[in-house]
# Entry
Amino acid sequence: MTTEERLENLERELGAAKRRYRWLLIGIVLAVGGFALAGGVFALAWAFAGGRTPAVIRANRFVLEDRQGRTRAELDMDMLDMGPTLNLLDENGKPRLQLSVIAFPWVALYDDKGETRARLESVGGGTSLALCDDKGKTRTKLYVDEDGPWLCLADEKGKTRAGLAMTKDGPFLSLRDENGKARAGLGVDKDGPGLRLLDEIGKIRVAVSGDKDGSSLRLSDENGEPRAALGVDKNGPRLGLAGENGKIRAGLSVHKDGPGLTLLDENGKTRARLESAGGSTTLGLADEKGNTRTMLYVNEDGPRLGLSDENGKTRAALAVDNKDGPILGLADENGKAIWAAP
# Structure
C-alpha cells in the first residue's frame, strides 16, 4: 500500500470516529526561541473506538497547505539523505524561514524578495549569527568559538569596518577603512589600556598606553619609527624627540628638583644639558665623547663659566661674584691654578 492510500484510509477512519465520539486533535506546534526555531511536530489524534493504537506515518516529504490550497510548509530530506529541511512559506509561496541540519544545523530568515536577512548556524566549535541588508550582504556577524566572542560590522560592500572581540588577553576594538585595512585599535590587557592609530599601509602612527607605572603617547613617521614620545610616570612628565633612525635627539623633562632639557647627537651622546634645580640654572656643553667641556652656572651668588679640556679638567674659570666682583682663573692639565685675576 502506498503512502497516499494509507493517508486516505486514515482520513476515512477519523471521519467515522468524529460522528460517533468527541475527539481531540493535537496539531502542529512551532517553538520559536530568539532566532533559533524548532521544527514542526506532526501528530494525529487517535480515535476512541475499537481500541486502536496511534498510527505511525513514515514518508520522505510532508507538505502543509492552507485552506486555499497554497503550500505553506514543507518538511523533507535532501536528495543525498544528509539531513532534513523545514521550509515555511508566506501566502505568496515565497520561502521566509528555513531550518536544516544538512552538514550542520542552521536557520535562515528571508524577506519577501527572497534575500537572506538572518542566518544562525553552528559549525565545528563555533556558533555564528549573521544579519544581512536588503541586498543579502552580511552587515553584522556575531561569532563565538573557543577563543571567545567577537562582533563584526560591515559596510554595503561587505567589507568589515568594525570588530569587537573578547580574547583571553582582554577586550579589543578594531576599526578599518573602506579597503579593509586596520586604522585604529583599542584594547585592554593585563598591563592596562592601549590605543593604536595606523595609516593606510598599516604602519602605527599614534600609540597611547597606560599602566600602573604611568602613561605615554608615541608618534611615529611613515616608516613606523617613533619620532616623538610624551610620558608621565612617578618622576614627572617627559618629552622625547627622535631622528629618522629612531634615536632620541632631544629630551625635555620635569622632575621633583626642576625642569631639564637634553640635546643628543646621532650616536646618542649628550651634547648639551640645561636644567634648573635648587635655585640655580646650569648649562653644560659636551664633546663627541660626552665629556662636559663648557659649564655655565648661575645661582644666588652670581654667574660662573668653566671651560674644561678633553680629560674633563677645568682649565679656565670666569665668575662674577655678587660680593667680590669679577674673577678669572687659569689652570694647567692637572687642574693646578697657574694664574688668577684679580
